């Protein structure tokens, strides 16, 4: 499991006090509300201390970057968070922990492939499965019956389709 996960991308400055627009890739910016540091690398070697995270405007201010000029140097950078800084509810996992897991057909118990990637769809996330047959599965309860980071992901295909 990766310790540092992508949080989003820093965009252009807003105002004069170092506030940066933040394209958050988490469920919402409030997901990161308790995080004290975001990192400029995926190893945690380049920390940025979060001074303020504004959910209403989707912006962030970092300590030491509290003017427009210094904050603009961060524009375009991807930032990561430390998974140890986030408490997930019981039974919930990070999407990154699902990538590469076996996908199991609920009706046959057979492994039909591996989860290759997850993307945002209009109504739900979409699971891209690669294996015997490549397919896209909406990540809703009707199709995704179980997600277990050790045993895999159990899905139910629509009637009339074969995995």
Task: Quickly list its features.
1 helix, mainly beta, Elongation Factor Tu (Ef-tu), domain 3, 3% helix, 12 strands, 163 residues
CATH topology call of the largest domain: Elongation Factor Tu (Ef-tu), domain 3
Strand-pairing-aware structural class? mainly beta
What's the end-to-end separation, in Å?
A: 28 Å
CATH homologous superfamily identity of the largest domain? RimM
Query: Got a strand count?
Result: 12
Low-confidence stretches: none
CATH architecture classification of the largest domain = Beta Barrel
Report the order of strands and helices: EEEEEHEEEEEEE
Question: Overall pLDDT, averaged?
Answer: 90
Q: In DSSP terms, counting alpha (H) and pi (I) runs of 4 or more, how many helices?
A: 1
> What is the highest CATH level, the class of the largest domain?
Mainly Beta
Widest beta sheet: strand line-up: 3-4-5-2-1-6
The residue fraction in helices comes out at: under 10%
């Amino acid at each position: 499991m990766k310790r540092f996960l992508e949080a989003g991308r820093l965009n252009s400055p807003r105002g004069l006090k170092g506030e940066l627009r933040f394209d958050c890739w988490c469920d919402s910016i409030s997901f990161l509300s308790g995080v004290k540091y975001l990192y400029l690398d995926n190893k945690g070697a380049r920390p940025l201390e979060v001074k303020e995270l504004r959910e209403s405007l989707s912006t962030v201010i970092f300590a030491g970057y509290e003017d427009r000029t210094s904050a603009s140097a961060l524009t375009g950078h991807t930032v990561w968070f430390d998974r140890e800084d986030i408490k997930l509810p019981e039974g919930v996992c990070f999407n990154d922990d699902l990538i590469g897991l076996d996908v199991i057909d609920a009706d046959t118990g057979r492994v039909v492939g591996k989860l290759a990637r997850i993307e945002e769809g209009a109504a739900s996330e979409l699971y891209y499965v690669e294996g015997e047959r490549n397919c896209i599965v909406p990540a809703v309860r009707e199709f995704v019956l179980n997600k277990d980071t050790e045993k895999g992901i159990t899905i139910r295909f629509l009637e009339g389709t074969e995995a």
